[in-house]
Specification:
Distance between the termini: 58 Å
Number of helices: 11
Enzyme class: transferase
Helix content: 25-40%
Strand content: 15-25%
Order of helices and strands: EHEHEHEHEHEHEHEEEHEHEEHH
CATH topology of the largest domain: Rossmann fold
Largest sheet: 7 strands, mixed
Function: Catalyzes the phosphorylation of D-fructose 6-phosphate to fructose 1,6-bisphosphate by ATP, the first committing step of glycolysis.
Pfam family, one: PFK
Strand order of the largest sheet: 3-2-1-4-5-12-13
Number of strands: 13
Shape: elongated
Main location: cytoplasm
Number of domains: 2
Protein name: ATP-dependent 6-phosphofructokinase
């Protein structure tokens, strides 16, 4: 069996470990031949790939990023035409590929379902730092992003306390606030703002004042997609992203001067940005990614295509694509409510 491996969407710590797990199990144990396409679907379209074997994946588990490269180049239009699928199958035949292992988040696994629905053999490996993919308790990359954000909170807290300042930290999270929620809890933030649950400007300032009245300095964590309930508008930067969506970022730089003007407390903003994506993955993400890769190779051997290898409890289970895509896994109300009680 010859399998094509590719990564799509944003990079995420642990992708190298996932490829290594899939290759060591697939090639060395099951006897597969595997190739990796460079820069995702771009490499598939343009015929750029590398052979994947034990030497090719030696020592890559602790490395950040992904050595194959990734991109947001699509394999076809939003709804593939019969002609596009015919050309797709011709490309597969040209490479001699029997099936795919696709590493990515919601967009990638949506493509996986489309391909599977058209009879293409696919198994999915879920990655995203946002942890917003259904069908799995955690995606690899999330734990690393939370660890980076938690360290930033620890560092901002010491300088904020030294100057009696309110510090506002912006983390990633367009539609789901998992990074902000977990990092805020881990770092002991006095206030965490996430996209799922807007809060008013007055309420935010009241919480900050409450912290000041207790003789402390506020640490506010805010996800990039957060909106004030007063306005309902997200903060965007110039231009659009690779998906054609407004480019988010800068909500911390909007909140900080509002807090300062309304409370009189000196306030500073920090936008963490792509620092959350980079660097070496945590041990948790390396293990999760490796186990996911192994499970994907085993699924291919067993002919259990049309599934994603998701984490359920402490087990890696095969989840039908229909259960994994079509909606985002957002922070439920009860998870937000349990931390909101301690704001301020």
């Amino acid at each position: 069996m010859r399998i094509g491996v590719l990564c799509s969407g944003g990079d995420s710590p642990g992708m190298n470990a996932a490829i290594r797990g899939a290759v060591l199990r697939g090639v060395d144990v099951h006897g597969f031949e595997m190739i990796g396409f460079i820069d995702g679907w771009r490499g598939f379209h343009e015929g750029e790939f590398v052979q994947l074997d034990r030497p090719a994946v030696r020592g890559i588990s602790p490395l950040g990023g992904v050595f194959l490269g990734t991109s947001r180049v699509p394999p076809f239009g939003t709804i593939p035409t019969d002609e596009e699928m015919r050309e797709f199958r011709e490309k597969m035949a040209e490479y001699g590929i029997d099936g795919f292992m696709l590493i990515g988040g919601n967009g990638t696994q949506t493509v996986s379902k489309i391909l599977s629905d058209h009879g293409i053999q696919v198994v999915g490996l879920p990655k995203t730092i946002d942890n917003d993919l259904c069908g799995t308790d955690y995606t690899f990359g999330f734990d690393t992003a939370v660890s980076v954000a938690s360290e930033a909170i620890d560092r901002l807290r010491t300088t904020g306390e030294s100057h009696s300042r309110c510090m506002v930290l912006e983390v990633m999270g367009r539609d789901a606030g998992w990074i902000a929620l977990h990092a805020g809890m881990a770092g002991g933030a006095q206030l965490t703002l996430i996209p799922e649950f807007p809060e008013s400007i007055d309420q935010v300032c009241d919480w900050v004042m409450s912290v000041r009245d207790r003789g402390r300095s506020s640490l506010v964590v805010v996800a990039e997609g957060f909106t004030f309930s007063d306005t309902g508008e997200t903060v965007t930067r110039e231009g659009v992203d690779e998906m054609g969506r407004p480019r988010l970022g800068g909500i911390a730089e909007v909140i900080a001067p509002i807090i300062e003007s309304r409370t009189g407390i000196e306030t500073r903003a920090t936008v963490l940005g792509h620092v959350q994506r980079g660097g070496s993955p945590t041990a948790f993400d390396r293990v999760l990614a490796t186990r996911t890769g192994i499970a994907a190779a085993d699924a291919a051997l067993a002919g259990k295509w049309g599934n994603m290898a998701g984490l359920r409890g402490d087990r890696i289970e095969l989840v039908p694509f229909a259960e994994a895509v079509g909606k985002l896994k957002t922070v439920p109300e009860e998870r937000y409510a349990e931390v909101r009680l301690n704001f301020g």
